[in-house]
């Protein structure tokens, strides 16, 4: 069968039923996390909420780790979807930098889904380790790509390599040089250091808010966050020189 014809073959009834059942299980797992917290997630609890036996659920997820991996992957994808949707509407306010829009999309999703956010970034689940280079890794790379693009859009590799950062030790520079990247091109070590610093600042503010540590700011938390993201972006862009040859590789 030609590749084109095979790609257009609709799923069978059995495949559609399995996909629907899998989605129902994931939805039930998310509800359980929302009601009881990530640590309480178990196959037995999810099966009971659906009127299934654990043995029946094993046909879809052979272990708790498999279910956790699927739930974590979905949560990362939902978060990335929210960030990308925010960026896609950035044209509605051209005065607001797209990086700030992306960061605010990240913040809104985290506040609206604190239990799922805790699953992703809170205390690791006991006895669970995400599979190396598995679906959770792919999902986090998608998020990284969005923020990398919005942070460095319009700059060449030569400009990013010349960014003004505190001196990196030879060992750190070598380590950053060999890290994989998922954006449109390889990031020089200086740019990678800036990206990690920006991520730590952005994520740290969101964690503090989601876990209630900035509640003393009351209704001003959104404004404080926007100001912080504007300042962060301005500081990073000041560190990237304008007089480097812009004809270099992007």
Question: Explain this structure to me?
Answer:
The protein has 250 residues and is an all-alpha fold. It folds into two domains: 62 residues, Arc Repressor Mutant, subunit A (Orthogonal Bundle), CATH 1.10.10; 170 residues, Tetracycline Repressor, domain 2 (Orthogonal Bundle), CATH 1.10.357. It has twelve helices and no strands. The longest helix is centred in the N-terminal third of the chain and has 25 residues. The C terminus is likely disordered.
What descriptors fit this protein?
single chain; 250 residues; mainly alpha; Arc Repressor Mutant, subunit A; Tetracycline Repressor, domain 2; 2 domains; 12 helices; globular
Number of strands: 0
CATH class of the largest domain: Mainly Alpha
CATH architecture of the largest domain: Orthogonal Bundle
Q: Separation of termini?
A: 41 Å
- Radius of gyration in whole Å, from Cα? 21 Å
Instruction: Give the overall pLDDT as a whole number.
Output: 89
How is the CATH topology of the largest domain named? Answer: Tetracycline Repressor, domain 2
List the helices and strands and how they pair.
Layout: H1 3-7, H2 13-36, H3 43-49, H4 54-57, H5 64-88, H6 98-112, H7 114-121, H8 135-152, H9 157-161, H10 170-178, H11 189-210, H12 221-238
Please sum up the structure shown.
Helices cover 64% and strands 0% of the residues. The chain has 250 residues and is mainly α.
